[in-house]
């Protein structure tokens, strides 16, 4: 299975919307992604109904372990982005080609 790059997403959106020029699609995609990133940087939550919610989670400082040496190291606390898929997205993914392939293998 292969992922989709940003440029592939823009090309697919431009092909599906021939009335939009590729530079316009690029501006739209960049504006949406920047808006989500800016809101998260400010600690705000972004909810896209039917798709999911982006938020930030705080990770407390902890003592970790260097896997190479086994030595204990202090890991500082940090804030990380988090995505929780919405119900419609979960249902779409669960009814997608991976689920069909798993059902065939199980039969």
UniProtKB/TrEMBL annotation:
GO terms for biological process: DNA recombination; regulation of DNA-templated transcription; regulation of translation. Belongs to the bacterial histone-like protein family. SUPFAM superfamilies: IHF-like DNA-binding proteins. GO terms for molecular function: DNA binding; structural constituent of chromatin. This protein is one of the two subunits of integration host factor, a specific DNA-binding protein that functions in genetic recombination as well as in transcriptional and translational control. It comes from Humitalea rosea. Keywords: DNA recombination, DNA-binding, Transcription, Transcription regulation, Translation regulation. Coiled coil: none annotated. CDD domains: IHF_B. InterPro entries: Hist_DNA-bd, Histone-like_DNA-bd_CS, IHF-like_DNA-bd_dom_sf, IHF_beta. PANTHER family: DNA-BINDING PROTEIN HU, INTEGRATION HOST FACTOR SUBUNIT BETA. It comes from the Bacteria. Gene3D superfamilies: IHF-like DNA-binding proteins. Heterodimer of an alpha and a beta chain. One of its GO terms (cellular component) is chromosome. This is Integration host factor subunit beta.
């Amino acid at each position: 299975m292969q992922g989709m790059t940003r440029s592939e997403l823009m090309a697919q959106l431009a092909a599906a919307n021939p009335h939009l020029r590729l530079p316009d699609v690029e501006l739209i995609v960049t504006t949406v992604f920047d808006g989500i990133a800016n809101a998260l940087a400010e600690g705000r939550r972004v909810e896209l109904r039917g798709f999911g919610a982006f938020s930030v989670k705080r990770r407390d400082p902890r003592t970790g372990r260097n896997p190479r040496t086994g030595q204990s190291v202090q890991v500082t606390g940090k804030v990380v982005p988090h995505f929780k898929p919405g119900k419609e997205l979960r249902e779409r993914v669960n009814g997608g080609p991976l689920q069909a392939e798993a059902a065939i293998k199980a039969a």
